[in-house]
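Quick illustration, no need to memorize.
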Amino acid sequence: MITISDKAKQFGVFIIKLLIVIAAFYFIYHQLATNDQLDWEKFRELVNRKATFLGIVFLLSFSVANRYLEILKWQNLVSFLRPISVGESTKQVLGALTAGIFTPNGLGEYAGKALYFDKSKTKTIIFLNLICNGIQMILTVIFGTIGLLIIGYWKWALTIVVLSCVLLLISFLSKKIKVKEYSIQKLLEKLNEIPMRIHRKNILLAICRYLVFSHQYYFLFLAFGVDLPYGTLMATIAVVYFLASSLPSFQFLDFAVKGSVAMFFFGKLGVNEWIVVFISTLMWFLNVVLPVVIGSYFVLRFKLNTNPEIS
């Protein structure tokens, strides 16, 4: 049998980490450099005219709060296994985000977080990450449906409510049916194993995070001179996030997906198309690109043989 030396393993791990970081930065550069809808001259002109130091700090604070709340969510959920520090949670969340940027719907994030734990806990970590992302998606659906009602798409909202009720009914009736030893009943039992205080905190942090990134979007529209009533603007933002999140996508294409959906809805409100594109791109840059840059450091620092095991 051929054995691989420790040095060879370490070199292999280093090459994989380096490829992940290079690929992440390449995808970011490619999307910014080849997007024909972005008029950088217009953008520079607007920034020079309206940007202030305090305004930039104000908008950046939303990005920090958004990612920090996600870090707290993960720290809270992992406490089901063992307590971890905010620093450790930061390393896992940002490192996994970098690993998942070029995978469909950020699936690489699940594997990225699992690598920080003992192999025996892989299924549990994936399940916890599913809960972490799942509650955010549920809130996106709820607020998005309310948004559809507010801006007048009540038929769409009614359809979503009916489909949700049908899916819940089907889930209830088939909860004991097993598919490869998995069932909804088993899923519910797994959820009940997690203390209610963890679930409550997870929901609270998810609501706070939703309010943070939706209001960052709102203040960017104000900065670009979009004058619409608060309720209309927030409802449309909720709809855009809901419908864009429902479409299969890659993290590095996130701004393109959200941008195209946003152009449809905000276009009907009379907002200039290029403003919508720039705001979607800025949201992507502030909430994906910047965290990935920091996450790249954690990816390069990752050591496979020194992961903390969870007992």
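The radius of gyration is 21 Å.
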